[in-house]
Write a structure and sequence with these properties.
alpha+beta
C-alpha cells in the first residue's frame, strides 16, 4: 500500500511547518515552530481557491542510514521538485542530523547565513525515525558556520558544545550531508544528489538501487532496517546468519511466552505461528489486549527486519505462511466484531493487519509463486545473474519465505532496469510481473493496486466511487509532479471521494465474518480490510497537504481576520477538512459515537454561518464560542487517542526492545512515530490552528479563571492533585501546574502550602474542585494554549507571581517575601497571609453528637423533609426542608422583567444522625469502629497506614445493614416503583466555612423494589465519610474525626433534561449584580465532577435581566437515570447541534432569566450568596440543594 503503516514522518517531510509534539499528561498538543517555506502562487487572499504551496518535502541521502519511509506520492513529489534544481550558482542542501531526543523535544539549526537565521532565528528540522532533517537553498561558493540545538518543550534551547561547525559550499548543485550531535569536529562529506538518485538500502552491497514510477516500489524498502541484501550464486543463507541473544531477565506472562516462542522460531512462518498461538489462547481472557499489543510490536519489527528471519533447514513453501495468516486474520476479525472489544483493541488490531501475508487462492496452492522458477531458468540472461536469482530469491522463497525476499526482489528489479536494453524485454517484463505477484503476497502493493484487486467484488455504486477516487488521486498526483497549482477544489474532491469510497468498503465489513465463510470470501475480506486501512493512510497525506495550503494562506491569522470582517466563507474548507479527518477516525473505530457527534456539530455550524446578532448578543462572539466548544471537543478526542497509544506501547516496546536487542532509537521513538504517522496527527494540527483563530476572534488568551486573585510561590508541575505529589523537601508557598484533574480533588489535601493552581485542561467553574479551591482561597486558573503553557514551564522551580482577574492572567518571576510566606490577595484588595486552616467554620458541625442524635433514631428512624433540622439531619437536609416550604411561595415572586422565580423541590425523607452508629451497635462493631477512628486521627499519609485504616473503616461500614424499620418507613413515604437518589447530609458539609462539595457520595437510580441495592446504597454513603479525601479534608479544617457523623437524604430521582449549578454572586469577578449558571445535559453528576469538557455558562443580571452567554457546552456524554434501578446510570453521547440551549438563542435567554430570578430569590431568603443545585424537567425548574456560596 502507498501508506502502509510504518514509522514514517510524512507529517514532517510533507509539511513546511514543523510541529512539535508535546506530552501533556498522556495527551499531546502541537507547538507551532518557526517556519521556513517557499510559497508560490498564493492567489487571492480573500479566497481559499486556486492556491498552491510548495512544500519543503525532503529526499534524504541514505548512504549512512535508512531513509525516512515516505509514501509513493511523497517520493514522486520530491523527485519532480529535485528535477528543477539544476540552477547555476545555487546549492540545495539536504541536512540530516543522526540524533534522537526525548519525547516532546525537537531539533533546530542556527548559523551565520541568512538561510540559517543569522544566529537569531532558529530553523526547525523535521522529525524522521532515522534523524532530523531539513532542506535549504544557499548561494554557491560560500563558507557558513552553524550549530544544532535541542529545543525543549518549554522552548529553551540546548546548544551543541564546542566551536561552531564550518562548511564550505560548492559553486552549485544538489547535495546531502549527515551530521551527528556534538560531533563538532567530524568531517562532513557532501554527497551529490541528482534526479536519477534513488533510495539506497541500508548497508546493501547492491550499489545500483532505483525506484522508477513504473516499477512501483513497495514501502518495504523505506521501512527496512534489517541486514544488508547481497546476491548469492550458491546456497549461502545459513552461513550468513549472525548469532542472536535474547535478554529474558524480568520477563513474565505473555511477553515471556512470545520471546520463548521466538527463540524456537527461526523463520517467518514459525514466527507467524507464535503470533497465532498467542492470539488464539488469549482471545477469551483478560490478556487479550496484551496479546494484541505484543503481537503488533513483534510483527512490526519482523516486517522491518529488526527481528531477522533465517532458514531452519526445513522446506515450506509460502502456502504455509498463507494458511497461518488466514487463521490470524479470522481471529482478528472475530475480536473486532465482539461487543466487548475496547477502542484500544480495535486500534491495535488495525496495526497488525498490514503485517500479514495474503492468503488468496494462488498463495494457498500447493506450489505458489512458480514464475520465479521459470525466470531463474531462462536462457536469455547471463549465467551469473541466473545463479543470483536462483539462490537469492527462488530457492530461499520456496524454502523459507520472509520479508527479506521482497527486499531482495526489489533490489534485483532496480538492478536489471537501471540500464534499459541491457537485458531482454521479455525477461524484464516477466520479472516485473513476478515482483507484482510477490508484492501481492506480502500485501505490499500500492493503494491503487489494492483497490483494483477488489473492484470486481463490489457493486456498481462501489465501483463508481472507486473509479472517481482513483481519477481524483491521479489528477492530484499529476498536479504535484508537474508543479502545477492544484487548488483546493481538486484536493477537496479527492478527500470527499476517499471518504465516500471508504464508507462503502467499511459498510461491507460491518456484518462480521460468517463461520461458514469460504476461503475465497475470507481472502477478499482481507483485501477490503487492507484497502480500508490504506485509504485511512492516504487521507493522512491529503490532510497534510491541506494543512500546508492553509498555512501558506496565512493560517490562523488569516482566518481570524476574515471573521473580523464578518466573512466566514474562508472557514468552509478548513471545517470541511476537519470533518473529513474526524470521519476517518470514526471509520477506524475510534470512539465512533463521539466522532459522529463532532462531525454533526461542525457541519451544523458550517451551515449556520455568522449572524449579526443572536437574540440580544453579538453574533460574532456567539459564532466563536460555539465553534470553540466543538473544536475543544475534537482536540480532546485526539488527546484521548494519543493517551491510549502512550498507555499501550511505550512500556511494552521497552520490554520487548530490550529482549530482542532493538536499537534504542527505535524503541524510544516507537509511540511517537505511531502518533505522528496517523490521521490523528493531522486532525490535531487542524484543531490547534482553528482554535488559535477562534481565540483571537472572541478575544480569549487561552486562560480561564476559576478563582481570581494573586498568589506567589515556587512553581511545581505535577501530574495530579494528590497527597504526596509535592516533594516533602519543598518549603514555603507553592503554585502548582497540574496536568490533569478529576474534579473531586481537594487542593490543600495535597499540601497546605498550595496557594495557586494552573490546570492544563478545561474545568467547570462550579465543579466541586472549583468550589473547594474558592473556599480554600487558592487562586485557580486553567490554560490550554500551547504557547502559554510552554511559557509557564520555563518558570518551573522558580518563585513566581500569579495574577488572575476576570480580564487577564499573568505569571512572571518574583522575589520571595522575607518571612517566607506568600500574600494571597482577593479582589477586594484585602491581603491575608497563608494559614493552615483557611475556612472559618460555623459551630454547627459540633452541634450533633452521636448520643444526642440517637433520640431521633429511636423516635422512628426516618424524618419527613419538613422536620429535618441542622442538628438532627445536617445542613444539606435542613436546607432542602426549607426549600420545600419556599417552593410553595416562589410562584408568586417575579423579577423586575416579570420573569417568575417559581421552582419545585423533589419529595424527600431523612435517615438522621445516629442511624449509622445504631447499626454498628446492633452489629456489635462499635468497639472496632472507635478503635479505627482513634487511629486515623494521628496516622501519617506517607506511611500508607492512613489508606489502610480508611479502607478498613469503609469495609466495616459498607457491611452494615440498616434496620428493617428504616426501610419500611421509607417505603411508606415513596411509592414502590419510585426511582430514588441516596445522598449524604453530614454535619461537616454545606456549612459557611466548609462546603465539602462532592466530598461524600451520592448513589443515584435506586428503588425500594430492590431493597438489597437500596440498603447497600445507604451503607455506601455512610462509608464515604471515611474516604482518604474526606479524612484529610477534616484534618485541614481542624474537625476531629470522631465528631463527624452522617445523615442520609433520600429524594425522588428526577429525569432532567438539564442540570445546573447557580452562584448568586459571579465567582470570577465577585459581581453581586449577576447570577452565574453552569448547565449540563442530563444528570448533574457530569457538571459537579471533573468530567473532561465545559458546561454551558450563562450570566443573568439580577436587576436588568440581561443574559450573556459565556461558554457553550462540550461534555461528550450525558448521564440518564434510565434502565434498571441498580445504582448505575446510562451514558449517552451528546450531539449539541440538536440541543436547544446551543442552537436556540431565545430559549437560552429565557432559561437564563428564569435561573437568575430563582437564584436571586433564594439569595434573599437565605440572606447570603448561595451555591444552588437544580435541574430542568420539561418546563419546570427543580431545586435539590442550596448552601452558602464560598466567596
Amino acid at each position: 500500500m502507498d501508506c502502509v503503516r510504518s514509522l514514517h514522518a510524512s507529517a514532517s517531510s510533507s509539511s513546511s511547518c514543523s510541529q512539535l509534539l508535546r506530552h501533556k499528561g498522556f495527551g499531546f498538543l502541537h507547538n507551532q515552530l518557526e517556519c521556513h517555506r517557499s510559497v508560490a502562487a498564493l492567489g487571492n487572499k480573500r479566497s481559499f481557491r486556486s492556491l498552491h504551496h510548495k512544500s519543503n518535502s525532503l529526499r534524504i541521502l541514505c548512504g549512512v542510514g535508512v531513509s525516512p519511509p515516505q509514501s509513493i506520492e511523497e517520493e514522486k513529489e520530491t523527485k519532480m521538485k529535485s528535477k528543477s534544481k539544476d540552477g547555476h550558482g545555487k546549492v540545495w542542501l539536504n541536512i540530516r542530523l543522526d540524533h534522537q531526543v526525548e519525547f516532546g523535544e525537537s531539533i533546530a539549526v542556527l548559523g551565520s547565513s541568512k538561510e540559517l537565521g543569522s544566529w537569531k532565528k532558529k530553523v526547525p528540522l523535521n522529525w524522521t525515525e532515522s534523524g532530523w532533517v531539513c532542506q535549504l537553498e544557499f548561494k554557491g561558493d560560500e563558507a557558513i558556520e552553524y550549530k544544532f540545538v535541542t529545543v525543549r518543550a518549554d522552548k529553551s534551547m540546548l546548544w551543541e558544545s564546542g566551536d561552531n561547525r564550518v562548511l564550505k559550499l560548492p559553486s552549485g548543485g544538489s547535495f546531502g550531508m549527515v551530521c551527528h550531535w556534538n560531533a563538532i569536529g567530524e568531517n562532513v562529506d557532501l554527497f551529490p544528489l541528482d534526479k536519477e538518485d534513488g533510495v539506497e538500502l541500508k548497508g546493501s552491497s547492491v550499489a545500483e538501487t532505483a525506484s522508477t514510477p513504473e516499477v512501483g516500489t513497495s514501502p518495504f524498502v523505506g521501512q527496512w532496517k534489517g541486514n544488508a541484501i547481497s546476491f548469492m550464486r550458491s546456497n549461502e543463507h545459513r552461513d550468513r546468519e549472525s548469532g542472536r541473544n535474547w535478554d529474558t531477565s524480568g520477563l513474565e506472562g505473555l511477553s515471556l511466552k512470545l520471546v520463548e516462542g521466538d527463540q524456537n522460531a527461526r523463520n517467518w512462518w514459525r514466527k507467524l505461528e507464535v503470533v497465532r498461538d498467542i492470539l488464539l489462547e488469549s482471545s477469551q481472557s483478560e490478556e487479550r489486549l496484551s496479546a494484541l499489543i505484543n503481537s503488533s510490536i513483534y510483527l512490526k519489527w519482523i516486517n522491518t527486519g529488526q527481528i531477522p528471519c533465517f532458514e531452519d533447514g526445513g522446506h515450506h513453501r509460502p502456502n504455509r505462511h498463507a494458511e497461518i495468516s488466514r487463521v490470524i486474520f479470522r481471529e482478528l476479525e472475530r475480536i473486532s466484531c465482539r461487543k466487548d472489544t475496547s477502542p484500544q483493541e480495535v486500534l491495535v488490531i488495525r496495526k497488525i493487519h498490514p503485517c500479514l501475508p495474503s492468503f488468496k487462492a494462488e498463495f494457498t496452492a500447493s506450489v505458489p509463486l512458480t514464475r520465479i522458477r521459470d525466470i531463474a531458468h531462462r536462457n536469455d540472461i547471463p549465467h551469473d545473474l541466473k545463479q543470483e536469482i536462483k539462490h537469492t530469491i527462488q530457492n530461499k522463497l520456496h524454502r523459507n519465505a520472509g520479508p527479506e525476499d521482497l527486499i531482495a526482489t526489489e533490489a534485483m528489479l532496480a538492478r536489471i532496469t537501471k540500464n534499459p536494453g541491457q537485458y531482454s524485454e521479455a525477461f524484464v517484463e516477466q520479472f516485473k510481473i513476478f515482483h507484482h505477484e510477490l508484492k501481492d503476497f506480502f500485501n505490499a502493493g500500492s493503494l491503487a493496486e489494492q483497490l483494483e484487486s477488489i473492484k470486481e467484488s463490489i457493486d456498481d455504486k462501489g465501483r463508481s466511487a472507486l473509479t472517481l477516487f482513483l481519477e481524483c488521486k491521479k489528477g492530484l498526483d499529476a498536479s504535484a509532479e508537474s508543479s502545477k497549482v492544484m487548488g483546493s477544489d481538486l484536493l477537496f474532491k479527492t478527500m470527499q471521494s476517499l471518504s465516500a469510497l471508504r464508507d462503502i468498503i467499511s459498510k461491507s465489513l460491518e456484518s462480521g465474518l460468517r463461520n461458514d465463510a469460504s476461503d475465497a470470501a475470507i481472502a477478499m475480506r482481507q483485501k477490503r480490510r487492507l484497502c480500508e486501512i490504506g485509504l485511512e493512510d492516504y487521507s493522512f497525506i491529503l490532510l497534510s497537504r491541506f494543512a500546508n495550503e492553509l498555512e501558506a494562506m496565512g493560517g490562523a491569522h488569516w482566518l481570524a481576520q476574515n471573521v473580523k470582517s464578518k466573512d466566514v466563507s474562508s472557514w468552509n474548507d478548513p471545517l470541511g477538512a476537519l470533518i473529513v479527518g474526524v470521519h476517518q477516525l470514526r471509520l477506524s473505530g475510534w470512539k465512533p459515537e463521539e466522532c459522529a457527534a463532532i462531525e454533526n456539530e461542525l457541519l451544523a455550524w458550517k451551515t449556520r454561518g455568522l449572524s449579526e446578532t443572536e437574540a440580544s448578543e453579538d453574533g460574532k462572539t456567539i459564532w466563536g464560542l460555539r465553534h470553540k466548544a466543538t473544536l475543544d471537543r475534537a482536540r480532546r478526542l485526539t488527546e484521548e487517542y494519543s493517551e491510549a497509544l502512550l498507555q499501550i506501547f511505550p512500556q511494552n516496546v521497552q520490554v520487548l526492545g530490550k529482549t530482542f536487542g532493538i536499537p534504542e532509537n527505535s524503541v524510544r521513538t516507537y509511540a511517537e512515530a505511531e502518533i505522528r504517522a496517523g490521521v490523528i496527527f493531522q486532525v490535531s494540527k487542524l484543531c490547534t490552528l482553528l482554535l488559535k483563530a477562534v481565540r483571537t476572534t472572541i478575544g480569549s488568551q487561552g486562560w480561564d479563571v476559576i478563582v481570581p486573585g494573586t498568589a506567589m510561590g515556587t512553581l511545581v508541575q505535577v501530574e495530579r492533585i494528590v497527597p504526596g505529589s509535592i516533594p516533602s523537601s519543598l518549603e514555603g508557598p507553592v503554585v502548582l501546574v497540574v496536568n490533569k484533574a478529576d474534579g473531586d480533588e481537594e487542593v490543600t489535601a495535597a499540601g497546605s502550602n498550595i496557594v495557586g493552581v494552573v490546570l492544563l485542561q478545561e474545568l467547570p467553574h462550579l465543579s466541586h474542585l472549583g468550589v473547594r479551591a474558592r473556599q480554600e482561597k487558592v487562586v485557580f486558573v486553567t490554560c490550554e494554549d500551547d504557547d502559554k503553557v510552554a511559557d509557564i514551564q520555563k518558570h518551573k522551580g522558580k518563585y513566581v507571581r500569579l495574577e488572575a482577574s476576570s480580564s487577564s492572567v499573568d505569571m512572571h518571576p518574583s522575589s520571595e517575601n522575607s518571612n517566607g510566606n506568600v500574600a494571597v490577595k482577593n479582589l477586594s484588595g484585602v491581603v491575608a497571609p497563608k494559614v493552615e486552616s483557611r475556612g472559618t467554620l460555623d459551630s454547627s458541625w459540633s452541634a450533633a453528637k452521636t448520643s444526642e442524635s440517637n433520640q431521633w433514631v429511636s423516635a422512628g428512624g426516618v424524618l419527613l423533609l419538613a422536620d429535618a433540622k441542622a442538628h438532627n439531619s445536617g445542613a444539606k437536609a435542613a436546607a432542602c426542608g426549607s426549600l420545600a416550604s419556599l417552593a410553595a411561595a416562589s410562584d408568586k415572586v417575579f423579577s423586575d422583567q416579570g420573569v417568575p422565580a417559581s421552582f419545585n423541590v423533589p419529595a424527600g425523607a431523612v435517615i438522621p444522625f445516629g442511624s449509622m452508629e445504631l447499626a454498628l451497635e446492633q452489629r456489635k462493631s462499635m468497639e472496632s469502629f472507635r478503635f479505627l477512628i482513634d487511629k486515623i486521627e494521628t496516622l501519617k499519609l506517607e506511611s500508607g497506614e492512613l489508606d489502610k485504616v480508611c479502607g478498613q473503616l469503609q469495609e466495616l461500614i459498607s457491611s452494615l445493614q440498616p434496620s428493617k424499620d428504616i426501610i419500611d418507613r421509607i417505603a411508606k413515604i415513596f411509592p414502590g416503583n419510585s426511582r430514588l437518589i441516596v445522598r449524604s447530609s453530614a454535619n461537616v458539609e454545606d456549612l459557611a466555612g466548609m462546603s465539602a462539595a462532592g466530598l461524600y457520595d451520592s448513589i443515584p437510580n435506586v428503588s425500594l423494589s430492590n431493597p438489597t441495592v437500596f440498603a447497600s446504597s445507604i451503607c455506601r454513603v455512610w462509608a464515604s465519610l471515611y474516604t482518604r479525601r474526606a479524612v484529610l479534608s477534616r484534618r485541614i479544617a481542624g474537625v476531629p474525626q470522631k465528631d463527624a457523623t452522617m445523615a442520609i437524604l433520600v429524594q425522588e430521582m428526577l429525569s432532567p433534561d438539564l442540570s445546573f449549578v447557580l452562584h448568586t454572586v459571579s465567582p470570577t469577578d465577585q459581581d453581586h449584580n449577576l447570577v452565574e449558571a453552569e448547565i449540563a445535559s442530563g444528570l448533574g453528576e457530569t457538571l459537579a465532577s471533573g468530567t473532561r469538557g465545559t458546561p454551558w455558562r450563562i450570566s443573568s443580571g439580577k436587576f436588568d435581566g440581561n443574559v450573556r452567554t459565556l461558554a457553550f457546552a462540550n461534555f461528550s456524554e450525558e448521564l440518564l437515570g434510565a434502565g434498571p434501578a441498580d445504582g448505575e446510570v446510562i451514558h449517552l453521547t451528546v450531539d449539541y447541534s440538536k440541543k436547544p440551549l446551543t442552537v436556540d438563542p431565545v430559549f437560552r435567554r429565557q432559561l437564563g432569566q428564569r435561573l437568575g430570578a430563582v437564584g436571586f430569590f433564594l439569595e434573599q431568603k437565605f440572606c447570603s450568596p448561595q451555591d444552588v443545585e437544580g435541574c430542568v424537567v420539561g418546563k419546570d425548574i427543580f431545586i435539590v440543594q442550596t448552601r452558602p456560596q464560598p466567596l
